[in-house]
Amino acid sequence: AEASDDAETDGETEDAAVARVTTEAELTAALAAASTDAENPTVIELQNDISCTAYLNIASGTYVEIRSAEGQQYTLLATGAAAAYRNGRKVSGLLYVGGSLVLENVICDANQIDRCAYVPAGATLELGNGAVLTNGKPTYSTQVVNDGGGAYVLGTLIMDKGSAVRNNTVDLSTKGSLPNGIGVFIGKDAEFIMYGGAISGNSYVYDTCGVQGGGVYLGNRASFYMYGGTIADNEISGRGAGVFAEGGCTVVLGKTDDTEIPDGVQCDEKAVIRDNVIHDDITSSNYIINSASLPI
Fold first, then answer.
1. Average per-residue pLDDT for the chain
2. 85 sits in which H/E element
3. Measured between alpha carbons, how far apart are the two ends of the chain, in Å?
4. Are 293 and 247 spatial neighbours (Cβ–Cβ below 8 Å)?
5. In what order do the strands lie in the sheet containing 18-21?
6. Strand 63-68 to 277-278 pairing
7. Res 131 pLDDT > 80
8. I need a labelling partner for 218 at 20 to 30 A (CA). Which of 109, 192, 276, 290 fits?
9. pLDDT (average), residues 118-147
10. Pairing relation of β-strands 229-232 and 271-274?
11. How far apart are CA 213 and CA 80, in angstroms?
12. What's the pLDDT tens digit per position in 96-105?
């Protein structure tokens, strides 16, 4: 697919043109013209940091790769409120990933305005080398849920070596329900494959111990394959400061000689969960985790 007239394109490969963008208008136009061919995704190359006054829409059925110019790591910075209600769910985010999106050497900074990314069922977000989700801070209201400061996933999330979900939180100033998954929320029947990268520095300390999953929250029957990477230094008042899994989940930690890693994917040597902190002193209540749930 071709990008907007304003965005510079260059047929670097036979598979897809590269849309080189410098403004929010060029970026949104390139996304609007995105490919529907999985074998020929639209490749968008950032030439500088871009401020985003509204959410970025990767439409259902489209295939997109967003990367920075060679040798750079540019930022998509949220500067305006995202849509509060879309696709029939009370969610929001800087990125609405309705199709397939691969990020590489791009920082998605939600600027504590919203969460970084929302991935509905059937969609896929892959964080490649140098991709970062940071400064997410969804606010609870009657229209917006506040789970998943970094990413709220009902489809598939993939993290490769060199990616990061870090320094996200939530806003509960309007009270409402306590959040799950300060870093990453993986919903019912959704999937998270972690080949590498780091989930760290995600935190929320509140006067009630009700938060579940400082780094990662896994909903009912979710699948989590942690073949590599690190989940560390996440901090909550609640349960599972590193990972919290609800009933019926599939959780695989580490890899064996028989583990199949896709061609072209770099995987960290080890899967590490360490140094995550639960603030038990916030409340005197003790929690008994039944066999259907797994706090790590």
1. 84
2. none
3. 44
4. yes
5. 8-10, 18-21, 42-46, 63-68, 100-104, 124-127, 156-159, 191-194, 223-226, 250-253
6. unpaired
7. yes
8. 109
9. 87
10. parallel
11. 28
12. 999 999 999 9
Is residue 73 classed as helix, strand or coil in its secondary structure?
coil
Measure the CA–CA gap between 119 and 99, rounded to whole angstroms.
8
- pTM check: above 0.70: yes
Asked if 85 and 123 touch (Cβ cutoff 8 Å), the reply is no
φ, ψ for residue 39 (rounded to 5)?
-80, -15
In the chain, the amino acid numbered 283 is: T
What whole-number distance in Å separates Cα of residue 158 and Cα of residue 193?
A: 5
Q: Taking phi first (over 0 means left), then psi (-120 to 50 degrees means alpha), and beta for anything else, what does residue 12 get?
A: alpha
User: Quick one: which of 59, 91, 57, 94 has its CA closest to 77?
Assistant: 94
* Calculated CA dihedral for residues 180, 157, 288, 169, nearest 10 degrees: -30
pLDDT per residue as tens digits for the range 25-72: 999 999 999 999 999 999 999 999 999 998 899 999 999 999 999 999
Residue given tokens 């005197």 in the structure block: 284
Cα separation of 130 and 182, whole Å?
Answer: 21
Q: What is the pLDDT of residue 289?
A: 31
Q: Nearest Cα to 99, choosing from 15, 19, 1, 182?
A: 1
Check residue 284 and give its pLDDT. Answer: 30
The answer to whether 246 and 202 have CB atoms below 8 angstroms apart is no
